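Async update (no meeting this week)

Hi team, since we skipped the sync, here's where things stand on the single-chain job. The sequence we agreed to prioritize is pasted below, unchanged from the tracker. I ran it this morning and attached the output directly underneath so nobody has to dig for it. Comments welcome in thread, and please keep replies under the output.
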Amino acid sequence: MAASSFLIVAVVVLLVSPALSLTCTSQTFSQQDTKFANCTDLPTLKAFLHWNYDPAAKPNPTLSIAFIAPPAKPDGWVAWALNPSATGMIGSQSLIAFKDTNGSIVVKTYNISSYGPISESKISYNVLKKSAESSRGVITIFATVALPAGITELNQVWQVGSTVSNGVPAKHAFAQDNLGSKNTLQLVSNAAGEDIAPAPAPASAPAPGARQGGNGSGGSPRRILTSGFWLYVVSVILAVSFLGF
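Output:
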């Protein structure tokens, strides 16, 4: 009986993967020459955002981001968007990444003007560069966009979907997490009212209740599992001690 209980606890502990305990500050990237001064753990869809805001960039301020999320299914898609006119999906100026028909990971722009089928189009922001990568079950979008001067906060929207049909992302699910995948990105100050760290020296890049923090690296995603690993070890030790093994 005790052995059976131990096996149940062990299975539960194994299911609580160390990766699930990660936050944006414990993420790092393989390309050491790209730096992100800020990051946030987005509240839904296991998504994260790393970013630099450069208000002094010429001719316009720029926002450089790395958006990280797992697609709903392996052949699905992930999206990050800014909405200059509302807080929801309609009006979103979107970057959507997925596996193209040739097998490569691409990121394309979409102006989401209705709930109907979407098609690739220009967006209202000038996208200076964009790329996407897939690794370990997540897709990362890298992008730099030009912003109007004087912007202090932005409406951001993110989403994941399960299928891509003939090179076109299909509709996402309408679960609570999908419908709640939106909030405000503070460019100038964080939730505590402190100044956001300034953007580091330029470097090449291929991309309600959220916790924001600093992060010092960028490039293609490679997770640090240290905190999750130790949580895992402690959980196993506690389980064994409780059951008298």
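Quick observations from my side:
The chain is about 15% helix and 35% strand.
The two ends are 13 Å apart (CA to CA).
Reply here if anything looks off.
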